[in-house]
């Protein structure tokens, strides 16, 4: 029987990009928050992790966090003195560069600065990250690894291993990574199996706006380094995740 003309093969990997409705909602939410909060911080994130961002939001339940396209957030606040939604906001918009977000809060500026100055969460490095120290495995038994992981170590991660009476045993020394070198996916997976974090999730406060119209630059060196076209990539999803109840 001939194949029907209506038959179509649809790739399940296709996703529909968010359009104007999503951008308009983000802008409306930002403008609404300007009425409810005394301060707005621009922050950048080092070693982005969505789970860590959600944990951070939990610690600041009375505040709101947004992580979206920089251009959209800048338009919402106002890019010029004529467009700004409140006095001084166009100066804050200029700080929206690279991978960054907005925090709306009624907390005192010093309390916010003090908290994020100390807030650091260790995490596992991702492929492409630079190793912070030398890590090596010595020849001999590796009792910290369960026996079930031995084939994975040998076949996927390239270690010379065997099982000796049920204990994973390394047949020759293995350099996991060297300080200052960028790591491969195999190296980062091995570090995770070793429970050896090499990344630090931290939030850098870039600038703050207060309702009196004053904008203060907090950390000019914290600006993101990503290209303008890539800034905030995929961030609108994060904004919804972080601010949904």
TrEMBL record:
Where are the residues of the annotated region Disordered? 217-245
Q: Give the matching SUPFAM superfamilies.
A: Ribosomal protein L10-like
* MF terms in GO: RNA binding
Q: Where does it localize?
A: Cytoplasm; Nucleus, Nucleolus
Where is this chain primarily localised?
cytoplasm
Q: Which UniProt keywords apply?
A: Cytoplasm, Nucleus, Ribosome biogenesis
Report the residue ranges that make up the Large ribosomal subunit protein uL10-like insertion domain in this protein. Answer: 125-195
Q: Which Gene3D superfamilies match?
A: 3.30.70.1730, 3.90.105.20
Biological process annotations from GO: nuclear-transcribed mRNA catabolic process; ribosomal large subunit assembly; rRNA processing
InterPro entries the record matches:
Mrt4 (IPR033867), Ribosomal_uL10 (IPR001790), Ribosomal_uL10-like_insert (IPR040637), Ribosomal_uL10-like_insert_sf (IPR043164), Ribosomal_uL10-like_sf (IPR043141), Ribosome_Assembly_uL10 (IPR051742)
What spans are recorded as compositionally biased (Acidic residues)?
222-245
Identify one Gene Ontology CC term for this UniProt entry: cytoplasm
Q: Which family does it belong to?
A: Belongs to the universal ribosomal protein uL10 family.
Task: State whether it acts alone or in a complex, and with which partners, per the record.
Answer: Associates with the pre-60S ribosomal particle.
What is this protein's function?
Component of the ribosome assembly machinery. Nuclear paralog of the ribosomal protein P0, it binds pre-60S subunits at an early stage of assembly in the nucleolus, and is replaced by P0 in cytoplasmic pre-60S subunits and mature 80S ribosomes.
Q: What is this protein called?
A: Ribosome assembly factor mrt4
Organism, by scientific name, is Notodromas monacha
